[in-house]
Amino acid sequence: MPRPLPVEPRRILLIKSHSAGIGDILRSSAAWAVLKKRWPDAELHLVFLTRWPGYPSEALIRDHHLLSSAHFLPMQEGRFAGVRGVGPHIWRRLLPELRRIVQDLQPDLIIDHEPFGIETSIAARWMRHFCAAPAVGVNQVPGRGWLYDYAGPGLQEYARRHELSWPMDYTERDFAALAALRLERDGQRIVLQETEAGRAFREVLQSRLSVDRPVIGLNIGCGTPDAVNRRPPMGLLVAVAQRLHQEYFHQLLLMGAPNERIINAEFMAACASFPCGQKDIIDLSGETTLSELTGAIASCDVFVSSDSGPYHMAIGLGVPTVALFNFPNAEACHQHTRMFFTAPSNVSNICSAIVNAAERKERVMGL
Fold first, then answer.
1. Topology classification of domain 11-181
2. Model confidence at 366, in pLDDT bands (50, 70, 90)?
3. pLDDT at 77 over 90
4. Where do the domains of the chain lie?
C-alpha cells in the first residue's frame, strides 16, 4: 500500500544521475523552482549518483540557491555477466552512504527523476526504508512504477499528454516524475543566481570594461573532442564579429575553459585585421571557475554561445541569449532564447538578434 503524500513536506530528497555536465544538471533547476513555488518552506536536497566524480559542475551546483544540500556519490559502472551496470562492490560502498544521508535528513518526500536504469530506483527504495517518506518516480517501462509509491508517466507518454514535440526539451524530463504530484512546468525556465565568487569576479572585471559600451559575451566553447561537432564554424563567428564591429559600438568578452584558449586565440587572430579589432576584445578563457563565470556572464548585455554549459548558465541567469547551433537539437533548445543555425546566410539575422537583445536590455535598465 502506498504511503500517503505529505501535505506540506519540510525536506524533499531529489535523486539524479545520468550526465554531470553543468547544462544537464542545470536543466533540473526548473523542477526545483516549481517545487519551491508549491512548497516555499521546503528544503531541497540533491543526491547525484555520478560516473564522473570531481566534475567541475559539482561546486556550482552545491552553491545553487534553491538547494539546501547536494551530495555527489561516485558510481562507477562495469560489466557483470555481460550486462552493463553497477557491481556489488560499488553497492557495498554506496548503500551505507545513502543510508547515512537519509537518516541525517529524514525527508518527507523522495523523488527519483531518472527515467532509465535501475540504479536510482534501488537508491530510492533503499533510502525509503530508513524514513517515513513516500517515493515518487517515473514509469518509463512497464513495471518500473511498482518500485515507487507514486509514478509519473514515461517520457514519451508525458510528451504526448502535454502535446510536446519528440524528442522534447530536456528540461521537461524532470517533470515526468512531478506529474505524479500534479505539478506542471507552466513555462518555468531554468534558474541560476550569481554566486558570491561570481559577484567578486564581476566587481574586479568592471575595471577592465568600458562603461560607455555594451558588453557582448561570446562563448565559442566545445573544446572537448566529443563536442567539436557543436562548435560554430570559425568563419561564421568572424563574419558576425566583423559585421558587429562595423555597425555596433560594443566590447566583446570571450569566455572559455583553459582548454579553449587556443580556440579563442584563433578567433582573436582572425579579428586582428579589423581596425582596433583586438583592442575591443577581452579573453577570459581559463580565468574563471564555473562559480566565477556566473559573474562574468552577468556582466554581459547579451550572451552569444554554442550549445555548451555557459549557454545554459546564461539562460539560468536571465541574460538575453543568442544560441548558435550547427544542427537541429530539440533537446538542447530552451524556450527563453533566440536560436540560429550556423549557416553563412544567417550572419545578418544573428547580428540583428544580438544588437536587438543588447539594446532591449539597455532600455530596461534605463527605466
1. Rossmann fold (3.40.50)
2. very low
3. no
4. 11-181, 196-366
Global pTM value? 0.93
Distances (CA, A) of 341 to 109, 231, 302, 305, 350: 42, 11, 18, 12, 9
What pLDDT is recorded for position 183? Answer: 98
- The model's pLDDT over 270-317, given as tens digits with 9 standing for 90+, comes to 998 876 555 689 999 999 999 999 999 999 999 999 999 999 999 999
Closest CA to 125 of 153, 144, 152, 104: 144
Instruction: Give the bridge partners for 69, in sequence order.
Output: 45
**Which H or E element spans position 268?**
helix 261-271
As given in the structure block, the three cell numbers for residue 1 are 500500500
Average pLDDT of 206-224?
Answer: 91
What are the backbone angles phi and psi of residue 102, rounded to the nearest 5°?
Answer: -70, -35
From the centroid of its chain, how far is CA 3?
Answer: 32
196-205 and 290-298 helices cross at what angle (nearest 10)? 50
C-alpha cell at 188: 518555468
Q: Do domains 11-181 and 196-366 have the same CATH topology?
A: yes
* Chain centroid, CA 311 distance in Å: 8
Report the CATH number of the 196-366 domain.
3.40.50.2000
